[in-house]
Amino acid sequence: MIELILTDDTTGLTFKINSSSTLGRDQTNEIILDSNFISRFHCKFFIANKNFYVKDLHSKNGTLVNQKIVVKETQLQTGDVISFGAPENTFSIVVLETADEVKPGEFFLTHRMKIAIAGIICILIIGMIFFTMKRSDNHEKTIPQTIETFQEIPGLRELIKMTLVRLGEKPEYIDDEIVNSVEKFVQIYQKGTTYRERMKEMKKYQAVMYDILSSHNLNDDYIFIAFVESGFDTKAYNRNSGAKGMWQFLSATGKSYGLKINKKVDERTDLVASTEAACLYISDMAAIFGYESFLLISASFNCGDGTIRAALKKIKNVKADRSFFYLYKEKLIPLETREYVLKIVAAIVLTEYENLKNLL
Hints:
This protein is of the alpha+beta class. The protein contains eleven helices and eleven strands. The strands form two sheets. Strands 2-1-11-10-7-8 form a six-stranded antiparallel β-sheet, with no helix packed on it. It has a five-stranded mixed β-sheet with strand order 4-3-5-6-9, with helices on one face.
């Protein structure tokens, strides 16, 4: 484990950072500096390959390391000097390697998840045996389906909980209400043809998309944003909003992330260019909301980061309750966005179930 220490040599103000953290004037940042030269969301500190990096979040006055403007991610080392917007906001840097700390709840959670995984596998095996016997008994009457009906998925509720934890959601917010909500959309996917049709389209593009996601250090689950947005239709067009392409970029947003959009060319319909732009957008949202906040990042794709930021401001204890499902339960984000994220989670859960089943 590594730790970054920022020290203002003039005032003695010190910040210790051991995880992804944003710095700025806004109260939702982990590091808050009240200065007119600092933007609301000024920069992001994060760990990659056991090193600390800083990324400027398009701040007005810039971030400088050793008097050089941060254009891309810049690695930080002991002895570096970092400035935020003005010389008076200058800090010296120390990077320390510390012993990994095991918190009381961490082993229990990991142990419980291992037990749950073993339980799910056992239930799946029993369920598959039962399903095979049932199908054999009714061979002439039953037409086999690609995906079992909702009631026939064994261990589904535990799989939903485990998937949500893996996606960065806090276990204390994953109650029966949340599980039931995800379960409802799993059932909708199973009863209709949407899931199978979109997965068929996904197979055409997933190799290219996974490579691009990987090049931006983003996990494969983000591909399911395109699953919900357009069903992987590169020419999809929303007449109401003007959003276009697989990732459903608005014209202004697409241009801001480097897409060429004019009367002759519209790169929102280009698989590679639009996916690159989507990854840049996701990376920016991750820098604001945290790389572990998959659900908040996904929500921002639907309603915009401004809506999510405004919702987070309404939370009294934002550091403790920085959770999509806290916003969900308090109805601080639109219903459309709440259901949008549930659809993404349901698609991921159903895909994980299919993958688990194929391993047996």
